[in-house]
Amino acid sequence: MLKVQSSQFILPKAKDIRGDDACDFAILDKTLLVAVLCDGVGSARKGGAAARQSVKFFIDHFKTRPKNWDITQSLTLFTQHINRLLFKESMTQYEQIELLTTLCVAVIEGDTLYTMNLGDSRIYLIDKNKKMKQLSVDHTMDEDNLSHVLTQACGLSDHVEPLITSTSIEKGDTLLLCSDGLTALMSDESIEEEVLKGLGSKLIVQTAAKGHKDHDRDDICMQIFRIEELDEIHAIKNLPLEIPQSLKIGDSFDGYTLVSSMMEHGRIWKVEKNKKTFVMKFPMASAIDDPIALEEFVKEAWYAKQVTHKAFGDAWVPEKRCARYYLMELIEGINLVEYLKNRPITIDSAIALAKFLHKAEAHLLHLGLVHGDIKPENIIVYNKEGEVGVDFKMVDFGSVVEVFEVNSRAGTPSYLAPERFSGNAINESTEIFSIGVTLYWALTGKFPYGEIEPFQTPTFKQAKLASYYNKNIPHWLESIVMRAIAPESEDRYAHYSEFFYELKSPEKVKPYYLKDASFIEREPLLFYKIGFFISLLTNVVSFIYYNS
Question: What is the Cα–Cα distance from 11 to 187, expressed in whole angstroms?
């Protein structure tokens, strides 16, 4: 996840005007930084309007750019597009260049900084060793008395061929963008010194402008981004690793030999190395031409190696690889569906399963993640080593997503909460619903809302109580399961902690009643108390009547 400490500030040349500088930035999907700074050319009547229009254009278009466009392609096409728009608008409305601005754009993706500039606004990088380097090129006339004349700018001509540069960056680096209003008043050395003091854009700009009267200087604009964390997932995605198009028994990758395929699609294999057996997973062959599929696989591998709880098998990514894959511990067991084919689950095992699922999800939440596809097929049952009984492991890292992910495709329809079908965010409550359906199925062999097919728009009528199918279920456990699968989220557990608290405290579980349950079913004690007092009152009235 990309994390930056940011500041930006614009100081017009006078208090009573808006100024011609503009800047803005956005962090998209917690992985991509887009920073834009423009200095509207003062000699053009609409320079400020061009600057503001350009900044908004880049931010908006990066938010909606096609996922298969790389950064260089995006910067090139967006620059050419806004340049052409400004030029044509100038010619149409004014018959001369009036919408003219400098343009600086910086994009951070993974461990790479992409930069592009037109004009004399600048981009600097201060590395973690406190050395500052100018990454932009001043597009101005070489002669001293013409150094203010731009040779390139946005909106100057019908077509432009922007130069995109890429630079490796690291955690601790600092990115700067500024207009020439700042560099006209401060040397590079002074800017570097002020930034290294930890000062923000506003204080640096105000320091530069101190002592200058209104209109005696230019507008000043500055952005500072101190890199606290880089998005390692994108960096890994850009590694030049082969994606094998076909795999067969006997193929070897970094000393791991393919022994047998574990799935029909042939991308998950048992492998051997040094007489030990592991599981190796490759991306689908189509990922070589599908950036989205590749990114999903890279995320899957990244999330898998972050998970360290014993509820999951170990997963790791070798530091040096010849191909795109990751490795997992081989868990010897069968999934819960196979395990329950010839035997019903015991109540004790069902309680143990519920607690296991809570611990697995609670660990993921600590990492900011959710499993996304809780179901019996993804739960492995195995014998405890040296002990009587069984234990569980959760598998399938391919569905793991960040909590609050919107429109996630993770999950199996029959186990999804109703709000997931409307594209709502995946969260603790929706995951608890999946846990509840899994427990209901394990205890009854039935789906509470029937089996739901992909692309179906289901209706969630009230489910039958689990005890309707299995009379052995204790009332307290049934109440927990039924509350977990409540169709309305406000009737369901909102957090794992609430669910787990009741699992550990059966005596504190409030009874769960169906919404159409009668009053006697909901409050039997109160019903009989009221009945007793009504009967008593009737007898008293009758006694008085017959004896009066």
Answer: 18
Region 3-236: CATH code: 3.60.40.10
The pTM of the full predicted model, rounded to 2 decimals, is: 0.68
d(CA 479, CA 466): 9
The dotted CATH code for 334-515 is 1.10.510.10
> What DSSP character marks residue 179?
-
State yes or no: pLDDT of 43 exceeds 90: no
Q: Under CATH, which number does the domain 239-329 receive?
A: 3.30.200.20
Cβ(179)–Cβ(21) under 8 Å? yes
User: Exposed (0-12), middle (13-18) or buried (19+): which is 178, by Cβ within 10 Å?
Assistant: buried
Q: What would the DSSP string read from start to end of 84-149?
A: HHHHHHHHHHTSS--S-B-EEEEEEETTEEEEEEESS-EEEEE-TTS-EEE-S---B-SSGGGTTS
Domain boundaries, the chain: 3-236, 239-329, 334-515, 518-548
Six token digits for residue 139: 């597009």
Rg (CA), the chain: 32
Ranked by mean pLDDT, the top range of 148-162, 193-207, 516-530 is 193-207
- Asked if residues 164 and 75 have their Cβ atoms less than 8 Å apart, the reply is yes
Q: Which DSSP string do the residues of 182-247 spell out, in sequence order? A: HHTTS-HHHHHHHHHTT--HHHHHHHHHTT--TTSS--EEEEEEEEEE--HHHHHHTS--B--S--
pLDDT in tens, 381-425: 988 766 666 799 999 998 998 898 877 778 999 999 999 998 889
Distance CA 548, CA 516 (A): 45
**Bridge partner residues of 167 (DSSP):** 113
Beta bridge partners of 154: 101
